[in-house]
From TrEMBL:
InterPro entries: Aldolase_TIM, MoaA_NifB_PqqE_Fe-S-bd_CS, rSAM, rSAM_sf, Sulphatase_maturase_rSAM
Domain spans labelled Radical SAM core: 92-332
Organism: Sporanaerobacter acetigenes DSM 13106
Name this protein carries in UniProt: Radical SAM core domain-containing protein
Keywords tagged on the record: 4Fe-4S, Iron, Iron-sulfur, Metal-binding, S-adenosyl-L-methionine
Length: 423
């Protein structure tokens, strides 16, 4: 009964701020500003408060009806929580895997203080080890990918570690083999590297094979060297990385333009200080993506005031630049990455009425977007997933996909179905 009453009311959430009154229209994914009287009337309707409802004059009731006529205050509720891709899941995994990521090694020549694979500090994750993927496993992975990507327009194989270039011989063999298997389908290759092992030969090889390369660099020397140190002597890696990036620009400037910088930001540092990295004559020409350091389960990351203030100010002027009220080149690079993400997310916002069957946004289609294959051939949704987690294990090269686990992950919203239907 209670459920029926809830479902006959508009699927909205009212809220107010010091400056105004609003409701969030779930079906349209929109926030609507209203005047105070209308806000109180909507609240009375939502509370089913007959006595209160009759206190309002005709003008407010008309405003309420106008909103309904325009499609707002919609009472449509989702009847079942189910991911829209559920029925096509098998087809996606059979023919449309977007890309695979191969864990070519678990070894690394650095020991970054925040690395989730470090021997201490992240007990819930795997640790660095000398384990390497064999060519036999990699070959099986390429064959598996070929057979499960017949409808994929832009096939891509990514190499991941540890530091992937510690197993460069395997990478070269995989590239040769995959080019043969995928002949005529324009396969591309991607790697994220700490850039300490970029010799002349390796740079030439990456440029010739048009790798999508991403280099990890956390800030200027004073910040980068706090965390990203060599395993062998715990000395900072900044000078080596900068020298190698400069060399890459000299040898292959066109290729260097396509390389991105991946920053792991520690917000305990000053925002402006972090962005000093982009004073470098080469780095300033490169695209930058960033993330924030992660702590192990339950631990909080500390944000310094100097970081928060600088970051919020740059987000603000970044948004102004989106609407043409500020020059984009006045915005710090780390904020530009955020603004581009924001633009991308805004494009995904969906308008219209929710269907009878829907799912909360969030889960990707596990195994389809970026199937991660570890050194021994086990499957996980992507490289960011904890490899020791059983519920994230999606199968293996030997056994194929574990459809039960994949279905449960895809439909994780089932766990909170009753709450989700009314949210
Ligand atoms: S380079 Fe990457 S894998 Fe190696 S220690 Fe640093 S974060 Fe970890």
């Amino acid at each position: 009964m209670e459920q029926l009453v809830k479902q006959s009311k508009p699927l909205i959430l009212t809220f107010k701020t010091p400056l105004g009154f609003y409701f969030y229209e779930t079906n349209r994914n929109e926030i609507v500003a209203v005047n105070e009287q209308l806000y109180k009337y909507i609240d009375a309707v939502m509370q089913d408060d007959e006595q209160e409802i009759h206190q309002f004059g005709e003008e407010v009731v008309c405003q309420y009806d106008d909103l309904k006529d325009c499609g707002y205050l919609c009472t449509n509720h989702v009847k079942e929580i189910r991911h829209p891709a559920t029925d096509e899941l098998e087809l996606f995994l059979e023919r449309k895997i977007d890309s695979i990521t191969l864990q070519v090694t678990q070894s690394c020549n650095l020991r970054c203080s925040y690395c989730v694979y470090s021997e201490d500090g992240y007990p819930s994750q795997r640790s660095h080890s000398e384990k390497m993927m064999s060519f036999e496993t990699a070959k099986k992975a390429v064959d598996f990918y070929f057979m499960h990507s017949m409808d994929t327009k832009h096939p891509n194989i990514s190499f991941y570690g540890g530091e992937p270039f510690l197993n460069i011989e395997l990478i070269k063999r995989v590239v040769d083999y995959a080019k043969k298997v995928f002949e005529g389908r324009n396969i591309t290759f991607t790697t994220t590297t700490n850039a300490t092992l970029l010799t002349d030969d390796l740079i030439d090889y990456l440029a010739e094979n048009k790798f999508n390369l991403m280099i990890s660099l956390d800030g200027p020397k004073s910040i980068h060297n706090q965390n990203r140190v060599f395993a062998v002597n715990r000395k900072g890696s900044y000078d080596t990385v900068i020298k190698n990036i400069g060399n890459m620009w000299k040898r292959h400037p066109e290729f260097a333009k396509t390389v991105s910088i991946s920053m792991v930001i520690n917000p305990e540092n000053n925002y402006e200080e972090i962005n000093r990295l982009f004073n470098d004559r080469y780095i300033k020409k490169m695209r930058c993506l960033h993330s924030i350091v992660e702590k192990d389960d339950g631990e909080m990351v500390n944000y310094a005031d100097e970081y928060v203030n600088g970051s919020l100010y740059n987000q603000f002027i970044g948004i102004l630049s989106m609407v043409g009220r500020f020059k984009k080149d006045g915005v710090r690079k780390t904020a530009i990455d955020e603004i581009e993400n924001m633009e991308h997310e805004m494009q995904k916002i969906r308008y219209g009425v929710l269907g009878d069957i829907a799912a909360p946004g969030g889960p990707c289609i596990p195994g389809k977007m970026r199937l991660f294959i570890d050194y021994k051939g086990d499957f996980f949704p992507c490289e960011r997933i904890n490899e020791t987690s059983e519920c994230m294990h999606l199968g293996s090269l030997d056994t194929g996909f574990d459809m039960n686990n994949i279905n449960s992950l895809l439909n994780i919203g089932k766990l909170t179905e009753d709450d989700c239907k009314d949210c």
